[in-house]
Amino acid sequence: MKNKIIETTDLKQTKKRNLIISILEEAPAPLTAEEIMEIASKEIKMSFSTVYRALNALADRNIVSKTIYQDGKLYYKIQTHSHQHVLKCIKCDECISIDACPLESLESNLCSETNYKITGHNLEFFGICPKCQSSNSNHKDSANCFTCHN
């Protein structure tokens, strides 16, 4: 099974690279290397070093992008050369994509003012999802509660 994305690069087609790309393409939100490893291990035996090497090779060729989230972890996603808006729960890591883009006029102004050709942007909002809010009625004891501790 050949992957069309890899065919556009100098990378060798391997089952492991193809699987990592497939996992990222099907993921509803960016994933950590550990999450990718967990999903991949259901199909192919793969070490963490193999996952990291493959992700770095794919990132070097702009096939995937890397972003450090507020939790300090590195997340990977297929590079779409567009933009993404995400709402992420700081407790359970649930991630919801936001379809609307309130930044289109800002992007247009930035292009006009700077002569940059903007190829994309990411916007991340962090909060506590309704499920985590309701499951933790004693949330004031939580060190992660921004409402109570900021």
- Number of DSSP strands? 6
What's the number of helices? Answer: 7
Write the element-wise H/E pattern from the N-terminal end onward: HHEHHEEEEHEHH
What is the CATH topology descriptor of the largest domain? Arc Repressor Mutant, subunit A
The class by helix and strand makeup works out as alpha+beta
Low-pLDDT windows of residues:
138-150
- Judging from the principal axes of the Cα atoms, what is the shape? flat
CATH homologous superfamily of the largest domain - what is it?
A: Winged helix-like DNA-binding domain superfamily/Winged helix DNA-binding domain
Could you estimate the helical fraction of the residues in percent? Answer: 25-40%
Q: What does the radius of gyration come to?
A: 18 Å
Distance between the termini: 52 Å
**What can be said about the biggest beta sheet?**
3 strands, antiparallel
Strand content: 15-25%
Task: Describe the protein's architecture and organization.
The chain has 150 residues and is α+β, with helices and mostly antiparallel strands. It has two domains: 1-79, Arc Repressor Mutant, subunit A (Orthogonal Bundle); 83-150, Dna Ligase, domain 1. Helices cover 39% and strands 19% of the residues. Helix 3 (33-40) packs across helix 4. The longest helix has 13 residues, at 48-60. Residues 138-150 have low confidence and may be disordered.
